[in-house]
Structure formats: structure tokens, C-alpha cells
């Protein structure tokens, strides 16, 4: 017999022996086999159910992502969906924005208030005053992300504004929340939404593609101002001028009507200007986005803290370089002006000393001049002119006065220069440009 045949015979004998042992001990072996089979069946069933549950969760997640569902409820784990920005994807939204911006340029308040459901008194006056300096808006692109509900959108409007007194247009970006009214028409909801929508807008605005877009516009804005000194000076002047005009209009609106007798009596009394009293406007600003608070007006300056959306500050000064000085924890700090909006203005009386500084108990002394002519009062600017530190065209420029501005006159000199008061200090302008 061959070696392979011997192995087969030996294996067969082992199998028969094992079978005989199982038969002899069937009372012990069979229950064990039964228990093993039951356990195996349970394990298989549990794994199958777990697999089905995972597949169901994956399907639900995919459906939610595809339909753009999600809310910024503020609870841990809830996230605003991050669909990509769409550019000019909805013609009806572009038409709405174009109509709104054209109305802003022309000062058409009827159209503005019909398209924007929220404009407080301050913003209404600001739009009216600003329209006097705007020639037109151009390069209008509307980027959108879906809003919290159907037919609502977070819109980021990128435009360029051309001012009447500037040669070059200036880029900018504005955020709006747009929805449908009961008549099926789109409108701009610019502030009446609740905290849930505020959080939703904030989360959407912090997404990478929106941050990149905002950074791009900010860089272009700063480059234009850096390259064009006159445009930079005009923007600084315009911000100060608009804030001043808004404050004066609000102050005038708060004065009650007077009788002729009261007016005549008051005309005989000393006026605020004669008594050295002037009016200051205290402005409160609010952060429109999460933004750094820095020690000085530079992106390289040390960070003090982060301003949150809706956080309010007292405005000290809005500077021409795109930064605003604010009061923070008892000292001065700086925030990018693009991330702040004025929410209230309060006019208060102050006494001004002859050095231009506020004082509670000093009175201004009459201006005197050793040469030239002039007895105080004001001069009106006939044409845009540089305001300089001394009576020379080579002297440092302190700013620019524009047609129609009034400057406090110190004296008109014989050398062709006029000495004036400007921002609390003595300055000079060419006499040919004032009257």
C-alpha cells in the first residue's frame, strides 16, 4: 500500500473514532452545539441591525446637506451649512439691490423706505446727507448664501461708489438679509431680525469664502486711499461732515417751537457762541461683526480684545485711515471703521476756551492781530484748498477745506494768507480761496 493510501486510511479511522466518541457522549455535546448556534445567530442579527442603523443615519445626513437644512440655534454642535458663495445667481436680487443703491445715490427716500423695512431716524438722515456727495454706484455684484428659510438669503453686495468731488471710485462691501414679503416681492431686512438670525448671519460671514471676499475688498479699499491722497482726505472730511450734519439736524429737531415773544426775548440774550459755549456730539457705535480691538490704529498693533456683534462703544474719533478711536475699559482703543455703525448721537453743551480746549469756567478772549485785517467771525471757502500749518505752500498740510465750508477767522494777512482756527489750532489758507 502506498504512503498516501495509508494516510487516507489513518484519517478515516480518526473520523470514525471521533464520531463514535460524540455518539457515546451525545448528552453533553449536543446541548453545547445548540448553545453555540444560538449565540452565533444573535451576533449576526445584532451586526446586521447596527449596519442598517448606520446606513440610515448616513442617508439622513446626506439629504439634510443636499436640501441646505440647518439653523444657527446657538446650541453646541449646531452649525450653519456652508454652501459656496454664489455670484449674481438671482437676477431678482440684483434688480432689488440696483434699485436700492440708485435710490441712495439720488436721495430717493420713498424708494429706500419701501425696499428696506428698517431704517431708524439716524440712518435715514445719514442716507439723505450722504446722497448729496454721491454721483453713482457701479460694478454691482451680489454674492449670496441661503438664509434660514426658503426664499431668504444672506447677501454680500460689492460695489464701487463714485463721489462728486473725487476722480476715482472707492470699493466697498455691505451685508444684507433679504426675504420675500406677503406680496411675493423681495425686500431688505436690515436690522429687525432677532438674535437667531443675527447669529446665523455672523456664522455665515465667518466662513472662509466670505472672509476671503471681505479681505479682497478691504485690500482694494486701502490701496485706493493709499494711492490717492486727495481721495483719502475727502473720505476723512466726508465722514466728519456727515456726522456733524446728522448731529445738527437731530439737535434742531429736538428744539420745540417758540413763540415770537420768546424768540425776541432770547435774541437779546447772549448766544452760545458769544458766551464761549459750543455743542459736542457724543456718538455711540456698534460692532457689526466680530473684530479685533487694538492698542493703536494699525493691523500690526497689539490686540486688546475682540468686539462681538452688537457690542457698543463711545466713539472718540473716526480717522481718515479707516480706523476709529473708541473708549474701552476706561482708555482709548482702536477698531476698523468698516465694522462699526452709529446707533445713537447725543448733543451736549461745552465751554470752549481761547486755546480751543473745552473748559467749564473759562471764557474765550477776542482774537487780536498785529498786522493785516480781520476782527474774528468766519470765512467761507470758495474752492477746495489745503489748510496748512504755517503761511507757506511748503508747510505741512493739516487737512483740506471744501467749497462751502466755513472756517473760524483769526485774521487776514497782507501776505495773501488768512489765519484761521482749525481743529483747535492756528492754521493758514490762501486768501484767494476764501471770502
From TrEMBL:
Q: Name one Pfam family in it.
A: SH3_3
User: What residue spans carry the Polar residues bias annotation?
Assistant: 355-369
Q: Which UniProt keywords apply?
A: Membrane, SH3 domain, Transmembrane, Transmembrane helix
The answer, when asked if Transmembrane is one of the entry's keywords, is yes
Q: Which PANTHER family does the UniProt record give? A: FAMILY PROTEIN, PUTATIVE-RELATED (PTHR34408), GLYCOSYL HYDROLASE FAMILY 19 DOMAIN-CONTAINING PROTEIN HI_1415 (PTHR34408:SF1)
Fetch the SMART domains from UniProt.
SH3b (SM00287)
The residue ranges of the SH3 domain are 374-435
Please indicate if the UniProt record lists Ribonucleoprotein as a keyword. Answer: no
Q: Biased-composition ranges for Acidic residues?
A: 255-272
What top-level branch of life does the organism fall under?
Answer: Bacteria
Q: Mind giving the lineage of the organism this protein is from? A: Bacteria, Bacillati, Bacillota, Clostridia, Lachnospirales
Its protein name is SH3 domain-containing protein
Q: Where is this region: Disordered?
A: 254-280, 355-384
Which stretches make up the SH3b domain? 280-344, 374-435
Where are its TM segments located? 28-46
Q: Return the PROSITE patterns for the record.
A: SH3, SH3B
- InterPro entries cross-referenced by the UniProt entry: Cell_Wall_Dynamics_Protein, SH3-like_bac-type, SH3-like_dom_sf, SH3_domain
